[in-house]
Design brief:
The chain is mainly beta and about 100 residues long. The protein has one helix at about 45-50, and strands spanning about 10-15, 20-25, 30-35, 40-45, 55-60. Strand 2 (about 20-25) and strand 3 form a beta hairpin.
């Protein structure tokens, strides 16, 4: 028997009955869960319906970007993490002759 799983944003799940993989991408204030299936389809699920599904939490698939035709060279760290830039307080030195 499968245990009931709690939806977690960023976690991947397998629907045992439909043999479908999906990731939770958002949960709003009214407990509506937005999920993106492995094939790229996005759907919304009520929390009560989610808990009733025969699911198991899984690790992120190695080839999760395949439906989007991303290759390893197309995936940059900045695509997945917030990258901040440092702003310098000093102007760049110039090579003016005095």
């Amino acid at each position: 028997m499968l245990e009931k799983v709690v939806p977690i944003v960023g976690a991947w799940y397998e629907d045992i009955e439909q043999c479908a993989l999906f990731e939770i991408i958002a949960i709003d204030d009214s407990n509506v869960i937005t999920a993106q299936y492995y094939d790229g389809e996005i759907t919304e699920i009520e929390k009560e319906a989610f808990i009733a599904l025969p699911l198991k939490q899984i690790d992120q698939p190695e080839d999760w970007g395949a439906p989007f035709e991303l290759e390893g060279t197309d995936r940059f760290e900045s695509d997945f993490f917030l990258v901040t830039m440092t702003v310098f307080q000093y102007p760049l030195a110039t090579n003016k002759m005095i």
